[in-house]
Amino acid sequence: MSRHVTIRLDEEFHDRLKARAAAEGTTVTALITDVVKRELDEDRERFFAGVEEFAEHWDYFQERFGKSAK
């Protein structure tokens, strides 16, 4: 079942959304839905969690293995 959601957008941003949707041959609703689905995708969340964890340990790796280790 679909739900109706209302959001407020400034006119310039809405115009950009309409232009992007038209360029992609879709609707503003479909474009927003696709972007939100991708953002909420679990694999994406896991990937970025891994990137964040790696970044937290980056200094250690550089000290341990050198800055130009290949």
What can you tell me about this protein's structure?
By secondary structure, the protein is an all-alpha fold. It has helices at 11-23, 28-40, 42-56, 58-65. The protein has one domain (11-66). It contains four helices and no strands. The protein starts with 10 loop residues before the first helix and ends in a 5-residue tail after the last helix. The mean pLDDT is 89. It comes from Streptomyces scabichelini. InterPro entries: Arc_rbn_hlx_hlx, RHH_dom, Ribbon_hlx_hlx. Residues 6-49 form the Ribbon-helix-helix domain. This is Ribbon-helix-helix domain-containing protein.
In short:
This protein has 70 residues and is mainly alpha-helical.
> What is the radius of gyration?
20 Å
Structural class, by secondary structure, is mainly alpha
Q: How many individual helices?
A: 4
In one word, what is the shape? Answer: elongated
Pattern of helices and strands? HHHH
Largest sheet composition: none
| Beta-strand content estimate | under 5%
Q: Estimate nothing, just give the exact number of structural domains.
A: 1
Please give the alpha-carbon distance between the first and last residues: 52 Å
Helix content: over 70%
Mean pLDDT: 89
Number of strands: 0
**Unreliable sequence segments:** none
